[in-house]
């Protein structure tokens, strides 16, 4: 019964990651703090990986069935991708953010063991489920951050301050976020082929995910072609996020989405 | 393109075309698409093998020809430049936005909206024309960067070529894509299938259903409000999964599952485990009312198409009910025969299609009224010979995304 060990494991990992976050956000710029942060992050990720492996062996099936189990995977992949992104791009805040999200998922699992026995419908039982959802979570997190930056940029622009540096940050976020968005879309297509017989059926969620993708595609091109037209691009960036939100939440209210396979409003009674 | 005529005198002046001209062209194409749609109906040409491959080769040769001989022309430069690119992406996005807002269906609607193709945009003329122009522009963009090949263009080429291949092969492959539905019945060998328009097709393979099965999760029980039928209380604590011997604390009631049978039937005065058609899950439950301390015992079941659901009255306001079990696995055990005399046993499951002779067999549906006792299983048969080409594009695009992640936005000089 490996789940009975979970509270202990979770407490250890949460402590490790909290120390890591503190080490990253400490105002004194010392290399030793960053190094400690990295060590604690990696030990935490490794511990969770070992726990998942034991759970896998113990259950004699991949632990992908229940929501509690999928949250374990989130908690594993979020810091992992955050750490890789950090190694490449040195965004400490982003690593801290992903560690925070991972801690949140661990805490939910800690306090709601009852949710372990939630069922997972057959169409969702796919090896694509986890990668599809994880890359989307990441992409949305990055793009959300980019539109916050865009709003800051618009404020700077209208109060006549220079917003060029702000846009560079937004660009990097959009590029990484867009890469993940593309992966999410493609993983979704590969999954759809296995589950529904075709990789693209213009399901409303697919259409809106594609629109989101097109929105950021337009931003990237405009940004590339006309680096000086800052105000217009900031507005495009803010608008693209509105499309993303429609795709994420608003889809349930659209008349065109009545038969979508993605609206999970399963009403009990 | 009609604009080619302007180019036969060697131009000394620079072509001044910008976004205005870009949008005039792409909107012009869009509007003429809608006009053709309104006058002549939706695209009925569904070109299959080998016509589609010829069209594809001609299109690629045309692009290569233009790039080779007219690469230096102003109009070709313009077509493979920023203004044409952004205007066509925007116009295409606008079309997708329409798909996102207008409910799409396959039926022809006899209204202006329907005649314009707005309710089936993905098979309409405007969509078709815009896609061809999109592939034309994107193709020229790729060729301009492809020749001469430079290392720094790798990410660009992976992304753009991947996308081009996906759109191109999806479009061409549409004529060869077959999605048919076969209704199989226990012990019957079925050789035919239907398409969406109920046209019948004789198949190179036959399917005999041996057994359809639904494996279900244990059902959940819930305390519900007697009048509204909704789960009592505001939190989700009044619902839990059944397990033999389990004790559950609901607000105000302590519940113990004394007996639980996944498949059972009412016999004389209790439920007994059986494995007959129409059996339903049932549980013998004792409930302690924590406010008054009294205990009630009784059977509950979620019922089946043969058995009525039964709940337990807890007090004047609350009922304990069993929710219908949620499916964990749909599967069809089948025997597959081919014309060449092959006979094969197979299992078809949701998310695990079975591949045979270029066909993918999917578990699509069953007789929902009869649930796990359904004696029919509906199998979808899909044949998509262009899939490897589409996937080649997908993997280029995945590589491009990885490249993009790693490279990021190069800081502009």
Describe the structure.
The complex is a heterodimer of chains A (269) and B (413). By secondary structure, chain A is mainly alpha-helical. Chain A folds into two domains: 1-115; 125-258. Chain A is built from eight helices and no strands. Chain A has helices at 6-25, 31-59, 67-89, 92-111, 129-158, 164-196, 204-225, 230-248. In chain A, helix 2 runs antiparallel to helix 3 (67-89), helix 5 (129-158) packs antiparallel against helix 6 (164-196) and helix 6 packs antiparallel against helix 7 (204-225). The radius of gyration of chain A is 20 Å and the shape is flat. The two termini of chain A are 34 Å apart. With 413 residues, chain B is α+β, with helices and mostly antiparallel strands. Helix content of chain B is 33%, strand content 30%. Chain B has eight helices and 17 strands. Chain B has helices at residues 19-40, 51-70, 74-79, 82-101, 112-115, 125-146, 154-173, 387-407, and strands spanning 178-185, 189-194, 200-216, 220-225, 239-241, 247-250, 253-267, 270-273, 280-289, 295-301, 312-313, 318-322, 327-338, 343-349, 354-356, 359-366, 376-383. In chain B, strands 6, 7, 8, 9 and 10 form a five-stranded antiparallel beta sheet that branches. Chain B is elongated. Chain B starts with 18 loop residues before the first helix and ends in a 6-residue tail after the last helix. Classes of the chains: A mainly alpha (269), B alpha+beta (413). Chains A and B meet through helix 6 and helix 7 of A and helix 4, strand 5, strand 13, strand 16 and helix 8 of B.
């Amino acid at each position: 019964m490996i789940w009975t060990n979970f509270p202990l494991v979770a407490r250890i990992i949460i402590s490790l990651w909290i120390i890591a976050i503190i080490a990253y956000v400490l105002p004194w710029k010392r290399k030793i703090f960053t190094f400690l942060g990295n060590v604690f992050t990696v030990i935490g990720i490794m511990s969770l990986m070992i726990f998942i492996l034991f759970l896998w062996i113990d259950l004699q099936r991949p632990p992908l069935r229940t929501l509690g189990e999928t949250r374990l995977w989130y908690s594993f992949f979020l810091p992992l991708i955050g750490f890789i992104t950090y190694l490449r791009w040195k965004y400490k805040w982003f690593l801290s953010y992903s560690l925070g999200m991972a801690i949140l998922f661990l805490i939910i699992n800690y306090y709601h063991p009852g949710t372990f026995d939630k069922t997972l419908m057959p169409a969702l039982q796919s090896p694509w489920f986890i990668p599809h959802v994880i890359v989307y979570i990441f992409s949305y997190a990055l793009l959300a951050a980019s539109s916050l930056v865009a709003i800051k940029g618009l404020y700077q622009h209208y109060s006549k301050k220079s917003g060029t540096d702000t846009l560079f940050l937004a660009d990097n976020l959009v590029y990484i976020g867009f890469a993940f968005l593309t992966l999410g879309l493609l993983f979704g297509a590969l999954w759809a082929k296995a589950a529904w017989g075709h990789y693209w059926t213009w399901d409303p969620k697919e259409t809106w995910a594609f629109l989101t993708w097109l929105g950021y595609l337009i931003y990237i091109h405009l940004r590339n072609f006309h680096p000086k037209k800052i105000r217009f691009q900031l507005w495009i960036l803010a608008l693209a996020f509105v499309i993303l939100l429609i795709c994420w939440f608003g889809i349930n209210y659209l008349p065109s989405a009545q038969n979508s396979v993605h609206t999970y409003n399963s009403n009990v009674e | 393109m009609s604009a080619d005529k302007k180019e036969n005198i060697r131009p000394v002046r620079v072509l001044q075309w910008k976004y205005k001209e870009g949008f005039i062209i792409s909107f012009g194409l869009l509007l003429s698409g809608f006009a053709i749609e309104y006058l002549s109906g939706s695209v009925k040409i569904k070109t299959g093998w080998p016509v589609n491959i010829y069209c594809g080769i001609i299109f690629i040769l045309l692009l290569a020809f233009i790039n080779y001989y007219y690469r230096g022309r102003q109009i070709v430069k313009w077509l493979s430049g920023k203004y044409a690119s952004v205007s066509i992406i925007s116009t295409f996005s606008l079309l997708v936005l329409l798909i996102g807002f207008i409910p799409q269906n396959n039926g022809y609607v006899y209204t202006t909206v329907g005649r314009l193709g707005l309710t089936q945009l993905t098979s309409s003329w405007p969509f078709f024309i815009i896609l061809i122009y999109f592939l034309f522009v994107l193709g020229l963009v790729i060729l301009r960067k492809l020749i001469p090949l430079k290392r720094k263009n790798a990410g660009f080429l992976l992304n753009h070529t991947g996308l081009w291949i996906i759109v191109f092969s999806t479009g061409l492959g549409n004529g060869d894509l077959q999605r048919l539905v076969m209704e199989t019945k226990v012990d019957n060998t079925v050789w035919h299938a239907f398409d969406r328009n109920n046209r019948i097709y004789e198949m190179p393979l036959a399917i005999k259903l041996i057994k359809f099965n639904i494996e279900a999760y244990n059902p959940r029980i819930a305390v519900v409000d007697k009048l509204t039928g909704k789960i009592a209380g505001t939190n989700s604590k009044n619902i839990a999964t059944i397990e033999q011997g389990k004790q559950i604390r609901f607000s105000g009631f302590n519940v113990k599952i004394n007996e639980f049978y996944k498949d059972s039937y009412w016999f004389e005065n209790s439920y007994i485990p059986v494995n007959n058609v129409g059996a339903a899950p049932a549980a013998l439950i004792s409930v302690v009312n924590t406010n008054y301390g009294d205990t009630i015992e009784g059977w509950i079941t979620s019922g089946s198409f043969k058995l009525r659901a039964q709940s337990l009255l807890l007090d004047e306001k609350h009922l304990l009910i069993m929710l219908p079990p949620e499916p964990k696995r749909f599967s069809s055990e089948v025997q597959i025969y081919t014309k060449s005399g092959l006979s094969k046993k197979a299992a078809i499951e949701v998310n695990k299609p079975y591949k045979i002779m270029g066909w993918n067999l999917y578990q699509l549906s069953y007789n929902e009224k009869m649930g796990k006792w359904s004696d029919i299983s509906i199998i979808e048969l899909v044949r998509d010979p262009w899939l490897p080409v589409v996937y080649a594009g997908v993997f280029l695009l995945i590589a491009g995304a990885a490249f993009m992640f790693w490279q990021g936005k190069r800081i502009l000089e």
